[in-house]
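TODO from last week: model Actin-like ATPase domain-containing protein.
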Amino acid sequence: MSLRDNLQTKIYNIAERRNFTPNCTATDYESVAFNKGIPIVIDNGSYQCRVGWANEVSPRLQFDSMVSKYRDRKINQSVLLVGNDIYTDATAKSNAKSAFDGNVVYNFETMEYILDYIFFKLGINTDKVYHPVLVTEPVCNPNHSRRLMSELLFEGYGVPSVCYGIDALFSFHANNLSFEEGGIVVSSGHTTTHVIPVVGRGVLEHTKRISCGGLTSTDYMLKLMQLKYPTFPTKMTINQAQHLVHNFTYVAQDYFKELKEYSNTNTFALNDRIIQFPYVPPANEKTEEELARQEERRQEQARRLKEQAAKLRIQKLKDLENNLEAYVQLKESRSSMKKSEWISRLKENRIDNEADLDEIILKTEKSVQRARNKLLGIDEVEIKEEPTFPLVDTPDEQLNEAEKKEKKKQIAAKSLHETRQRQKEAKELARRQQEEEERAEEQRRINDFEGWLNELKNNYESQLEKVKSLKRKKEQLMDRRSHASQLRMKSIANLASDTPNQKRRRRGQDEDTFGMDDNDWSIYKEISKEEDAWEEEEELSQLRDYEHKLLRYDPAFLPEHTFDAKNSQQNSLVFMLTRGVVPVYDPENFGQMHQLHVNVERIRVPEALFQPSIIGLDQAGVVETIGDIVNRFDYDDQRKMIKSIFVTGGHTQTPGLLPRLETSLRSILPSDAPLGVIHARDPVLDTWRGAALWAKTEDFYKYAVTRQEYQEYGGEYLKEHRFGNVYRI
């Protein structure tokens, strides 16, 4: 018994969205932060925004960076929802918008709604914000975006100072890693993945970006499912695709090796995940009692039809008997009537002569007998009489014109009869020869079973190869551009020509154009279809004969090893990937119609981070990118950086990422390289915590841009610090 037979199916329900926790409005602002100048730390991510006071351990607010503004027709008012609140209403979800283009803020009207929400939820009820603000931003954030953000904070909210820092470097700082000792930060977020070398500071001039992140994986999963199930009865949403990515994907340690494992039917069910979508059972489904009553009505109807058919047979028999009696009386009345009167009676009954009357009586008697036998349930055995041809040997001089015509018919009938007799004799001879061969084969099987079985296996293998060759040839002939198809077309054209087997015509003379028109190819396909079907059926018949013997005498040859089983749609790899192996797919099952099978996509989607070409990106993978960055530094800096390869960001929570990254890096680094791969303690919140740690130091106030400096130098003014977006050329 295979492993797939012992598996118990587990079905996972699709989640429309995550369980969002509402953000409550703070009521302790006066006691906690009022007149204390505590900095506000905003981790402004493109997926989620996290906000809190710098002197606290965790952010107070954590919500999706989405805003929904629409008009509610029920209350006839405009509604504005921010963050997690938009998931409470279907209309709000459909109108949700982000302030980001990729990982850069571009819609500052939406960003203003988010900032209003932040300061309101923090409980700030003063005329303006009296707290310094620290905002995270991506690597190489455009000056234009930063200028508009500074303008919004200074002009709109009156903050005393603003400072910006790279999110990945704050996470590096939160995990107590030293900038002086160096390292490499791999930050994979919602839209992109950045690889930042750290040598005393973030070396932005050697930083690389890969356009692959959590959103890319979600979009790729959605496209794969849509391509895999084009007729799926339910539309999959982006949130549902995200649920599949977050809960069912993992990074393969050896991608191509695991791909091969997914083609193994015995272990496939271990890696297959069945996802059940919600559905409403059809209302017309009948209960067992209704089905039983329906079956009773069907049986009653069948009984009535049988009774009607029996009555019709009895009536038909009576009509035949009456007709037979009338014809017999007409026959007997010949002796008591004049000949002219009797012939007139025949003409009235549409009978030409006495011979036709005798023939009609004979046929009617046979019909009556058949009807009686059928009524009594007696099976008839038809006895065929040997045909006679009395006029064949009679000379034409002795025959009139009608008899000569009859003689020609009898000659043709005799020739056809003799041909059929020869065919019967040939079939009987072939049958006796086949029986003799089977007896000889049976004797050989009894005397030398091993030798006979080996010979049978060899014959089966050669016949199987012949059938496969025919199928390959058939596929080639279906393509008019293939060499085999062109050769066959020329042969058909040559046979159809009035002068076949002509030599090749010289240039300038008339050329054969058969095949240039699509109608010619239609004729060719009809000829090929008939010939190939006959040849393939003959070879398949021989192959099935071998399989029947192997199934009977070879215990190692099982039904699933037969040619038909291997080529069955349900045993194909495509069917297994789409419908699974456990449980057996039932197209009538309404629940199974609303199920997805996530299998090879579990490793294919996260593999895009290592092979971006899978999703159509002409970029290097994360391992090649790290290797290229390391080679840009001298030997001492290289060894410092590879000691601390720091991995952070929400997209790095995919299981198996770190072991795969370490294995792949060891394959491109020297054997004595001191490689160390470190995962952030909390890849999601460490950015905010690192920013909060730095906001409590004197360096924060030193490098923050004050309102006076903003008014003097403009919104693009930025002070250089180790977390900042300043690079040197």
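Done. The longest helix spans residues 401-447.
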